[in-house]
Structures are given as structure tokens and as C-alpha cells.
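The instructor's notes for this session suggest beginning with a concrete chain rather than abstract definitions. Hand out the sequence below and ask the class to guess, before any prediction is shown, which regions might be ordered.
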Amino acid sequence: MLYRLRKAGYQAYLVGGCVRDLLLGREPKDFDVVTDAHPEAIRSVFRNCRLVGRRFRLAHVYFGDEVVEVATFRGSASEPQNSGRVLENGRILRDNVYGTIEEDAWRRDFTVNALYYDIGDFSVVDYVGGMEDHRSGTLRLIGEPDARYREDPVRMLRAVRFAGKLGFKLHESCAEPIGRLAGLLRQISPARLYDEVLKLFLSGYAVQTFEQLRHYRLFEALFPATDACLSGENERFPLTFLAKALENTDRRWAEGKPVAPYFLFAALLWEPVRAQTEMRIRQGEANMLALQEVAAEVISRQLGHTAFPRSVGQPMRELWSLQLRFDSRSGGRPFRLINHPRFRAAYDFLLLRAETGEADSELAEWWTRFQAVDEAEQKAMTRETRRKPARRGRRQKKPALKPRPIEP
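After discussion, reveal the predicted structure:
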């Protein structure tokens, strides 16, 4: 692709995370290309190309299942009235101002992401001191931090994510404004924040990321109900459970196993669901009804912060509801439950609850054994746990009814 753009008379470089990761000896997740060709010119070079994006006009070039993102050099846009750039309260809404490679470098977010690989002489081009920060393990914003965060508040999440992923330290100038500006995330669309949450917690560094998000008050902006519960934790159950769930997520990622987004969100939102459900049950509401109503309320409020799709919300509610059904271990109920499509995920969720002391460990052990034995033993287990009717005191013997005389 790079050679093809050069052959057509354009400059072309690898840029960003792929260059950074190659210098760290890591395998890049994907490759980004930058060029002086405008989007329409890129499309004329590659027939298998589609232009996307409104805020940033990009070209996606398709090679089978692989997609390579090609961007045009961004300009400095020093004149706000430039028709290619639209601002609102310091935040960039649209930015299709084109320029040179040096201008493009100064427009990028972090110095270690502003390194360009030149295939012409196999060198790394650095205009912003990215190589020095790369060697020292420092994550530093390009430009004035307050202004860069206001341009795009999601940069605060990216700062935390890159620091955790790379093992870099946030530069003081980069870290200091985050706590003050965390509330700016409310300006970002919930749909975009949902995508960012998946990147934060499904990249193998969920535990470190979670700690940093709480430290900089960013978690409060993403999950306010959960953060409020964690701030008033009881016997350390809330924080312990979520930390254990994220640790399990990181372990599955390291083993190459998938993690369903609905399971992640079920763990992130479980504490407000659990706390409010228990409160309603103490007030006399039926267990399942209380949980279902609370789940609907918690999900409805959370959609205003991270707009996850229905394919996440519905399985999440099922997983929560199944937690109550684990208490029923007699008759045919265990057999019906074990054949439920969400049983395995709900069982894993139960194990996490038991491991952190929130659920009865004996209950988790029973369900673990129930899955391991044959059908005859399963039936024996359900008979052993059949509940006997509670005795309500000695029943009084009713007096014998005397026959009534027949009226003449």
C-alpha cells in the first residue's frame, strides 16, 4: 500500500500505535497509514476503498477481511474560521483541514503516537520528541494539556488506557488536569463512550485501568451508580467483587479466551443492582420482581452514560436474574436451569460472587458438583436438598362434628 501511494506520486508513512508497538517489540494490532493525498485521491488509487467519517474524513482500504485506515496529513488550522474545522466550546466537531507531515505530527495526541516510519530509508521520523519519551517510558500530550483535553475529552480515557497498556508513566502536565476536567466526558455521545469502555477493559489491562480511572475520577463519569456504591462499600464486598471480575477478564484475555461484553457490563453494574434489590426485598417486595425492576432502572440510567446495544442489555438482565434461581436446588428446577443458554455465564458469575464472600460458597460448590456427576447422582442431590415444609407448632385436633337433627 505504501509503495503504491508513492508510485502514484504521494508521500506515505506508517504512523501511530503500530510504529510505537514495533519499537517496543510488540506485534501491532493494526496498521495506520498517513499520506499527503486527499481522501478522494486515495480512493482513486485504491478501488477497494471507502471514505468514512464526518469529524475526520478517512479512507478505509479493504484487503479481504483486513481494513487499513489511511488518513491525510492534518493541518494546523490556526484560523478557527477555516471552513474545514468546526469548534464548539473548545471541542472539535469537524476537522478536515489538511497540511504537511510536520503539522500532522503536532496535531496528534501523544508524543509516542506521533512517530512516522519512512519506507524510503527505513527510518523513524520524529518532530515532537516521541523517541525520547519512548525510551523513558513517559506518556506526554502534545501541546497545552487543558486545551487538548477540551478539544476531545476522550483523550483523558486514552491517556489512562495507554499508560496501563504500555506500562508508561503519565507526565505530570498530562495527569494534573484530568481530575478537574473529567466531567467533560458528559459531552461525549454515550455510544462513543461504550466503544471506549470496551477498549479500556478488554485489552488485558483491566485491573490497572480500573484503578487509574478511579484515581482520576473518570470512572465516576462513566459509571456513576457503581462509583457511588464503591465509595460506600460494605465489608469490602463491592470493590473486591469488581476487582476479581476484572482480574478474571485479564486472565481470559491472556489465555486467548473471549470475554462477552454483556458479562463485563454485568460485573460493572452488579453492585448498584444488588444493593437496591436487597433494599427492596427488606421492604417486603418479592425477590425476582425486585431484581427485575431494579435491573431495568439501573440499565435505563446507565444508557445515558454508555449506550450499550440491546445485545448487551438483554443477556445482562438474564445473567442477573439467574443468580436468584441458583437457590432452587430441588425437583426439576436445577435440570431446567442447567440447560438455560446463559447458564455457564451465570455460573461463572456465581463463582466470582462466592469467591469474594458475597454468595454462599456451599451453594457454588453444590452447582459445581451437580455439573460433574451423572444424572442418577444429580437426582439424588436434588432429593437431598428438597425443602421440608416448615412446622408452625402443633396442629390442634378439630372436634368431631355432631350430626344435626333432621327437622320434621
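Then share the key points. The radius of gyration is 29 Å. The domain at 1-132 is CATH 3.30.460.10 (Beta Polymerase; domain 2).
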